[in-house]
Amino acid sequence: MLKYQYLLTHDGVFLPTLAIIGTQWGDEGKGKITDYLAEGADMVVRYQGGANAGHTIKVGDEVIALHLLPSGMVRPGVISVIGNGVVVDCEAMGKEIEGLVRSGRSADGLRISDRANIVLPYHRALDGAEERARGNKGVGTTGRGIGPCYSDKMARSGIRMGDLLDEEYLRERLDTVLPIKERLADSLGEPLNIDRDELVRKLLEYGRTYRDKIVDSSVLIYDAIKAGKRVMFEGAQGTMLDIDHGTYPYVTSSNCTSAAICTGAGIPPSMVEQVIGVVKAYTTRVGAGPFPTELKDETGRKLLHQGEEFGTTTGRERRCGWLDLVVLRLAVRLSGLTSLAITKLDVLNDIDPIKVCVAYEIDGERVENFPGNASRLERARPIYEELQGWSSWSEETASLCRRGVEALPEAMRDYISYIERSVGVKAEILSLGKRRDETIDLRPDRWSIA
Predict the structure, then answer these.
(1) Which residues have a catalytic role annotated?
(2) Which terminus of the chain has fewer CB atoms gathered within 10 Å of its CB, N or C?
(3) pLDDT at 445
(4) What burial letters (b/e) apply to 358-386, b meaning 16+ CB within 10 Å?
(5) Domain harbouring 343, CATH code
(6) Which of 192, 214, 236 represents a domain boundary (last residue)?
(7) Contact 322, 356 (CB under 8 A)
(8) 243 and 384 inside one domain
(9) 122 part of a folded domain
(10) Cα(278)–Cα(25) distance, rounded to whole angstroms?
(11) Nearest partner of 233 among 83, 10, 338, 334, judged by Cα
């Protein structure tokens, strides 16, 4: 009982903290699931990634695309925290805030870690220069400066949000770092031409703008959990883009598993109670890199268009393929998933049969655990099992969801059960559309029903 004391709420009911983790290559629908669950949350925390991520949320007929801001920003009264593990593009953040304010929402609930590193103009310039220098071996970066910013963080050359509140220290930091970046850019044949004084002026302006929102987010989050507040941790990208465990080097520059919550939000592991893995009913990925179940046929095109699989941040077409259980088992193991949220089940309507990858064949050998070597993965051939498909339903999707899981087509229920048995984790949230009410919630102790 002592382990859970910090979760005791004012009315004596134990409520967990929740983490929302992507189980594939991102784009699983985490934005919708986070928004759906955020109605019962007091705080939503983003703990890794940057403006290279994208979450799409549909509220009624309104579609909201967020890249850096936590999904809690669309929920009135929710505190939305950008943790220290996020890299912050102040210019992009300002545009997102302006868009939300124009839509009639408030940014009053936003808090930003004083320890979060800042994406600077030279990061974006170097991102593009380095990708071009790789030639046809590029890793598919978005060009938004995320990788170079994380590189600076690890090299102890970063500028952090708290630095914007101290002009003398900020100037000292830039005097040290900027000449190094200029020499690096020159070596790549693309000079920076950055005006140091103008950069300082702009950064100090950001400091004045966000002064009241820059906080020690670790203390803020820790105290909220201790006080019994309902805190959600929102992951960006997905497990297969994790810098350590994904399809390296075709990955992002941060850790995307649940372990990153501790470092990226500044809380102990004992405060992460439930971990919901968001899994798309099929698989997609954006950019370069191995993708064993990719479909380059008519079925792949059907998934692309029925699923509207275009990147929220880049607009690029997503590569589409069948569900990969080798990938999903890896995500379950790495993040200790306690339940699944299966999204875009409706996109598989009228596809029969449906295939599911259960293992790979690599060099004549059956492989059931995801390989860490990209070259080996390029040679992987999926081993499939076939399941019966189902037809579209005639009634409104929201009405179908209100009737519960038993109203779903039998073949869809069998598909869900197959996934559960294969990975040993229960599916407790089922999403059949973009809207909040196109969701079936099977959690026995859920915070609330959106």
Answers:
(1) 27, 55
(2) N
(3) 62
(4) bbbebeeeebeebbeeeeebeebebbbee
(5) 3.40.440.10
(6) 214
(7) yes
(8) yes
(9) yes
(10) 11
(11) 83
Residue whose entry in the numeric block shows the structure tokens 């099977």: 442
The angle at the Cα of 261, spanning 74 to 139, to the nearest 5 degrees, equals 85
Q: Are residues 194 and 209 in the same domain?
A: yes
304 & 379 share domain: yes
Which of 126, 124, 166 lies closest to 145, judged by CA?
124
Distance CA 373, CA 314 (A): 27
Asked if 53 and 123 sit in the same domain, the reply is: no
Q: Are residues 320 and 226 in the same domain?
A: yes
Question: 171 — phi, psi (to 5°)?
Answer: -65, -40
DSSP state of 316: P
Q: Which helix (H) or strand (E) is 30 found in, with range?
A: helix 30-38
Give whole-number Cα distances, 361 to 187, 365, 415, in Å. 43, 5, 23
pLDDT at 5: 35
As a whole number of Å, the CA-based R_g of the chain is 22
Give the CATH number, domain containing residue 194. 1.10.300.10
- Which stretch of DSSP H or E encloses residue 422? helix 410-423
Q: Which domain holds residue 136?
A: 117-214
Residue 437 lies in a domain: yes
Using CB atoms within 10 Å of the CB of residue 444, give its burial: 0 to 12 exposed, 13 to 18 middle, 19+ buried: exposed
Report residue 43 CA to chain centroid gap.
Answer: 17
* Better-scored residue on pLDDT, 16 or 280: 280
Of the residues 199, 214, 229, the one at which a domain ends: 214
Asked whether 90 and 213 are in contact (CB, 8 A), the reply is: no
With respect to residue 170, please indicate whether it lies within any of the assigned structural domains.
yes
The pairing of beta strand 62-66 with beta strand 79-82: unpaired
Average predicted confidence (pLDDT) for the chain = 90
Which H/E stretch holds residue 301? helix 298-306
279 plus 351 within the same structural domain: yes
Are residue 280 and residue 393 in the same domain, yes or no? yes
- Would residue 79 count as lying in a domain? yes
The number of domains in the chain is 2
Confidence of residue 140 (pLDDT cuts 50, 70, 90): low
- d(Cα 317, Cα 321) in Å, to the nearest integer? 13
Handedness of CA 349, 351, 352, 353 (dihedral sign): negative
Closest CA to 42 of 64, 11, 18, 22: 18
